[in-house]
Amino acid sequence: MITLQNIEKYYATKGLKSYILRHVSTTIQQGEFVSIMGPSGAGKSTLLNILGMLEEPTYGTYEFMGEDITSLSERKKIELYRNHIGFVFQAYHLIDEMTVAENIEAPLLYKKIAGAERKSRVADMLDRFNIVGKKDLFPNQLSGGQQQLVGIARALAAQPSIILADEPTGNLQSAQALQIMELFKKLNEEENITIIQVTHSEVNAGYGSRILHLLDGVIKEDLNVVNL
Ligand SMILES: Nc1ncnc2c1ncn2[C@@H]1O[C@H](COP(=O)(O)OP(=O)(O)OP(=O)(O)O)[C@@H](O)[C@H]1O
Fold first, then answer.
1. How far is residue 217 from each of residues 110, 132, 161, 206, measured CA to CA in Å?
2. Burial class (CB within 10 angstroms; exposed 0-12, middle 13-18, buried 19+) of 130
3. Residue 20 beta carbon below 6 angstroms from any ligand 1 atom
4. How far apart are CA 139 and CA 143, in angstroms?
5. What number is the average pLDDT over the span 110-139?
6. Is 16 a residue whose pLDDT tops 50?
7. Is 86 in the pocket of ligand 1 (CB under 6 A)?
8. Looking at CB atoms within 10 Å, which of 28, 103, 138, 228 has the fewest?
9. What stretches of the chain show up as alpha helix (H) in DSSP?
10. Helix, strand, coil shares of the chain as percentages rounded to 5?
């Protein structure tokens, strides 16, 4: 599903290159649940953003679902993103002026999905996440955990093949974090949705099947998680 070959990312200031990612090569199959770990500044978010087409590598090739991303037009990239990728952010990134239901519906409008289908998908998501009673509330009327559930519901409403999550439980208490991780595990096992998460938590990484350890922009370790 994903092939990265010799990905490099650097910023040049006054002729000096500061490398964020170096020689990153890996393959991720459909249905994997991968955690990206490493110290602060190691390049984890940058790698996730490249995978999600939110940033471009300086060098190297990125193949996603058989398409060479580095040579695609902006329009084609947006289309691929809308059709396949659900992004979940640490700080939720919900739209404050929209209700829960409107937030979940928003990406479906971009995908030009017809009204009746949109309503039905939103209703399904509200139901599935047990938040029907919250549908007319605004994000600031929800707890952090509930906001993150809405963030995930919004990503899933578009029926993605892959979820990219940047520290999805970073702002949550442990019980809420557990709920989100259980949900990811279920989506991965039952719906074969590929999941790639950035996390600092060993517990969260234990929900996945593989850990990529980044250090100073380089993949230092690529481990299979052994479930005890
Ligand atoms: N636009 C930019 N210009 C210059 N340097 C940048 C830019 N964006 C990110 N960086 C640098 O890239 C490095 C990696 O950042 P990144 O956010 O990917 O790290 P991270 O591993 O996700 O860290 P954290 O765990 O703290 O979120 C950091 O040192 C950061 O300062």
1. 34, 43, 26, 22
2. exposed
3. yes
4. 8
5. 94
6. yes
7. no
8. 228
9. 44-51, 74-84, 100-110, 115-128, 144-157, 174-191, 202-205
10. 40, 30, 30
- C-alpha angle 177-87-159 in degrees, rounded to nearest 5: 100
Domain boundaries, the chain: 2-224
Q: What is the DSSP letter of 158?
A: T
Q: Report how far residue 149's alpha carbon sits from residue 3's, in angstroms, rounded to the nearest whole number.
A: 30
**Residue 213 Cβ contacting ligand 1 at under 6 Å:** no
Decide if 225 contacts 36 (C-beta within 8 A). no
Q: Residue 13 CA: which ligand 1 atom is closest?
A: 4
What's the pLDDT tens digit per position in 152-188? Answer: 999 999 999 999 999 999 988 888 899 899 999 999 9
Distance, in Å, from the CA atom of 209 to the CA atom of 227, rounded to the nearest integer, reads 8
Q: Which fold has domain 2-224?
A: Rossmann fold (3.40.50)
Dist CA 26 CA 6 (whole Å): 9
- Calculate the average pLDDT of the chain: 94
Count the neighbouring beta carbons within 10 Å of the beta carbon of residue 211.
Answer: 19
Q: Model confidence over 142-157: pLDDT tens digits?
A: 999 899 999 999 999 9
| β-strand partners of 27 | 3
Specify the pairing of strand 210-215 against strand 33-37. parallel
Q: What is the pLDDT of residues 191-208, one digit of tens each?
A: 999 999 999 999 999 999
